[in-house]
Specification:
Elements lengths: L2 H20 L9 H34 L14 E11 L6 E5 L7 E2 L4 E5 L9 E6 L2 E6 L8 E12 L4 E7 L3 E3 L2 E13 L5 H5 L2 E19 L2 E2 L2 E2 L2 E21 L2 E18 L12 H9 L6 E14 L2 E9 L3 E10 L1
Length: about 350
């Protein structure tokens, strides 16, 4: 087991033990063994949460990264562009499952097996039972399901307004999209600057270059572990991944009459936050479980940098533009949309 997981286990057990003792006057727990088991249960939940949700938040970054710059071309000042788009993310098979073994856990065991393959949040809906004992009662729960979708599709609105000196302000917003086992939402804004305007020979050949800096926020949530114990429900049945992403993008295009071919090079840096949310369980009267787990989830919230390439095509019909794009890197993400130029 990796050192970080070992440290996480020990810290959760210690904090769970401390909290249980602190609230022992309100608790039904009578023995140090029972109190210790609460800490082990939290440790297992935290360990599972990391392997379950991280592939989904990694995928969310890709879904939010593509099709930001519709064209690097400089337009007339105060021109407005508004479009409706559909994002299509292709869920990779390699990130749909992970392996668990009884040796991974301190509290739970896999019912009827020593190991099992279970879905991540972007995996299928297969489930196994985990069992343990607390306060003389058996705890038996199903592992959380994945979204069970080979593609994740959601619509969003995007608009831009041309500013002076070749700058353009762009913004994107999607409503909360319902997945089979959760929700996804993205929004953000950025600034593009056309720099081919400084090279008249390039402009004469209908070649355009731009640079852009963009911020986006991704919010993805999933049904998680609904655990009932002798001391009440734990209230960790919803797990959220919150991602702040900063994109840096270079774009180049060549116009062929009504058709524009665009290539983009994208580098982004993302900061991740994971929280359990939703209705607090009745055990909160004894131990503030959500606060404890949320504090410990900070340990898996590592920053990541991604590099993407993107190819896009844009076709003009009067003031209407039809566009599609494909972004590629660790994952593959597509976009199709229609825009209107005011």
């Amino acid at each position: 087991m990796p050192l970080t997981q070992k440290l996480m286990r020990k810290s959760v057990a210690i904090i769970g033990l401390f909290l249980a003792f602190f609230f022992t006057q309100k608790s039904k727990a009578q023995t140090p063994e029972e109190i210790e088991q609460i800490g082990y249960l939290l440790s297992d939940a935290l360990l599972y949460s990391q392997q379950y949700i991280v592939p989904a938040t990694d995928a969310a970054v890709y879904q939010a990264s593509s099709a930001w710059i519709l064209s690097p071309k400089k337009r007339k000042k105060w021109d407005v562009n508004l479009g409706l788009f559909t994002n299509v993310f292709f869920v990779p098979k390699s990130d749909r499952t992970f392996q668990i073994e009884n040796s991974d856990f301190q509290f739970f065991e896999i019912e009827g097996a020593t190991s099992a393959t279970v879905p991540t949040a972007i995996g299928n809906d297969n489930q196994v039972y985990l069992v343990g004992e607390l306060g003389g009662e058996q705890i038996r729960l199903k592992t959380p399901e994945g979204i069970n979708q080979e593609t994740v599709i959601y619509p969003y609105l995007q608009g831009g307004i041309e500013l002076p000196y070749g700058f353009e302000f762009v913004a994107r917003y999607s409503t909360k999209t319902k997945l089979k086992r959760g929700d996804y939402q993205v929004y953000g804004f950025g600034i593009k600057h056309n720099f081919s305007q400084y090279f008249s020979k390039l402009e004469a050949k209908n070649i355009h270059f731009s640079v852009a800096s963009i911020y986006s926020k991704e919010d993805i949530s999933f049904d998680f572990l609904d655990i009932n114990t002798a001391y009440g429900n734990l209230g960790i049945n919803n797990l959220n991944g919150l991602v702040d992403t900063f994109h840096f993008q270079l774009s180049a295009s060549k116009e062929f009459k009504r058709f524009e071919l665009i290539t983009n090079f994208i580098v982004n840096h993302s900061s991740f936050e994971y929280v359990v949310s939703g209705k607090k369980g009745s055990i909160e009267e004894v131990i503030p479980i959500q606060d404890v787990i949320n504090g410990l989830l900070k340990r898996i919230a590592k920053d990541k940098t991604n590099v993407l390439g993107e190819i896009s095509g844009r076709y003009q019909i009067s003031k209407i533009y039809l566009q599609s794009s494909i972004a590629f890197g660790k994952f593959v993400n597509g976009n199709i949309g229609v825009q209107y130029q005011f």
